[in-house]
Structure formats: C-alpha cells, structure tokens
Write a structure and sequence with these properties.
This protein is α/β, with parallel strands linked by helices. It folds into two domains: about 5-90, Orthogonal Bundle (Arc Repressor Mutant, subunit A), CATH 1.10.10; about 100-280, D-Maltodextrin-Binding Protein, domain 2, CATH 3.40.190.290. About 45% of the residues lie in helices and about 20% in strands. It has twelve helices and eleven strands. Strands 3, 4, 5, 6, 9, 10 and 11 form a seven-stranded mixed sheet that branches. Strands 1-2 form a two-stranded antiparallel sheet. The chain has a two-stranded parallel ribbon with strand order 7-8. The chain is rod-shaped. The mean pLDDT is about 90.
Length: about 300
C-alpha cells in the first residue's frame, strides 16, 4: 500500500462492523449502497487484504478486517480529537483581543471601552501592552500577534489604516505656587518654547505633538523627559517646572487642586486619537466589536 486509505472509507468500514451490513452503513453515512460497495472494494485493493465476507445475512469482518477496523477506529478517534483541538484553538484565538496602546489612551479611555466590550462579549479575553505611540505602530506593523493598536501622535505611520476614536487636548500645568499660576495673560508660544519643561519621552504621542507645535519657535531642551504621565505629573506637582500633558492624564490632579492649568495663546493643542491596524487587514471579531462600541459612544 503506497498511500493511506481515505478517512471516509475507513469510517464506512467501521460502520459496517458496527451495523452488520453495507446497506445499513451506507444509510448511516448518507450515501448510496452501490457507492459504499465500490468504496469498500477500493479499500480492500488499497490495503491488499480481504476485509469483508459478504453473505445473505449481511457482511462480516475477516480476521484481517477486524484488525483493520481496530486500527481505523483508533485513527478516526485521533482525527476527531485533532479536529476538536484545532476548533478550540481557533475559538480561543477569536475570543482573544490583543491590544497595544499608548499610555494616555490606556489610562484614560480603554478601561471604559473594555468594560462595555465585556458586557457585549463576556467570553472575550483581552491582552493589553502599554507603550508609547511610536512603539505601538512598530508592534502592530511587525507582528501578527496584535489585533489593534491605539495611538495619539499627530502623524500616522506608513502602512497603517486608522479610525479616529476620540479627541484630546494638551494643556500646560504648574504647581499652585508657580508664578504662571497667577498670571493674567496666556503664555505665548515663544515663551513656552523658551521655558525648560517637564515632558514625555521621545516617541510618545504627547511629545511628538508638542515638538511639532513648538518647532518654529526654536524650543529649548526640556528640563526633564519622563516615561509616564504619572511621572510627569509628579514632577509638575513637586514644582520642578511647568509640564505639558494630555488633559485626560491630569483631570483628577486638577480637580484636587494639586495642579493649575495655564492658558496658552495661538497654539492648536487639540489632537486626534486613533485606532490603527495594518492596511489590507479586515478587522473582525472582538476588534471590530470594540471599534463599533467606541463609535457608538
């Protein structure tokens, strides 16, 4: 035998052993009896051994046929287990949503969005990696592991499709004792650029937005560049220097009076927040559901 027999022929032989006749086995599998007879004859030719003894009362297995049926039953059970395992794996993957998100979106917006997703699809498991917007774009483009990314920078990396999921605004904040907390006139762009600030690290959407806004004003080197909104907020509360952050990131601190917002003139500090994924990929499953939830808010 140069090639293994097809699984359906083996399944038919097992049915014959269980039901006692080719006709009953054919009906169990939903095929015509002549077709079943031809399949069994082909199976005997392929194995090279007689499998059945046919008589007026039905069909019985030869000694070799009984061995083949035992082996076939083991093989079919293994195939069934394999099929079920793959199906379970596919279901598990479809019920898992892998997200890479920028820090501000992850802290301020994703918890509400994911809470609504859990109500809509309670079986979904979410894996979340939080990093800056540049790294989010790199991850989503370079690895199929990620279903969706969220970024907040002013530019979109080539190769990414996107959907706007929200609006945000950068604000300048200082500690209550800072001189800017008492000024009556807004800070001008050139004045802001000439001030050493506490800012997010290079690669974050907040930092990229700020750098673009101040580029024409020859900005000075930041006083501190820190890797999280909490660290920047803490430095501003400590009075180290004015800070520039997403309003989402400092709402609680502003409400508590630990920071004061400073108005800025002639700068468009608004920005768009985006969901991103590789161009050409059609979003489906939990990723598509999440975007629908966000759009309907």
């Amino acid at each position: 035998m140069t090639t293994p027999p097809d699984l359906e022929s083996l399944r038919l032989l097992v049915h014959v052993a269980e039901l006692g006749s080719v006709g009953r086995a054919a009906r169990a599998m939903g095929i015509a009896q002549p077709s079943a007879t031809k399949r069994l004859a082909a199976l005997e030719r392929r194995t090279g051994v007689p499998l059945l003894v046919r008589g007026p009362q039905g069909s019985t297995l030869t000694a070799d046929g009984k061995l083949v049926v035992a082996w076939a039953a083991t093989l079919l059970a293994a195939v069934g287990e394999f099929t079920e395992s793959v199906s379970a794996l596919r279901s598990s993957r479809s019920a898992t949503l892998r997200i890479a998100s920028s820090l501000t979106i992850a802290e301020a917006l994703l918890p509400r969005w994911l809470s609504e997703l859990r109500v809509a699809e309670p079986e979904v498991h979410v894996g979340l990696t939080v990093t800056n917007s540049t790294e989010v774009a790199r991850l989503v483009l370079s690895d199929d592991e990620w279903d969706l990314g969220f970024v907040e920078g002013p530019t979109l990396t080539e190769g990414l499709a996107s959907k706007v999921v929200g609006e945000d605004r950068l604000i300048v904040v200082v500690a209550p004792g800072h001189p800017w907390s008492r000024r009556r006139r807004p800070v001008l762009p050139a004045e802001l650029a000439a001030t050493p600030l506490v800012v997010r690290e290079t690669g974050s959407g907040t930092r990229e937005t700020l750098d673009r806004l101040l580029r024409a004003h020859d900005p000075v080197t930041p006083q501190l560049a820190l890797g999280s909104n909490a660290a920047v907020t803490g430095a501003a509360v400590a009075g180290i220097a004015p800070a520039v952050l997403s309003r989402h990131a400092v709402e609680t601190t502003l409400a508590a009076g630990s920071l004061v917002e400073v108005p800025v003139a002639d700068l468009r500090l608004e920005r768009r927040l985006r969901a991103v994924w590789p161009k050409g990929r059609r979003l489906s499953g939990p990723a598509a559901t999440l975007l629908t939830i966000i759009a309907n808010r």
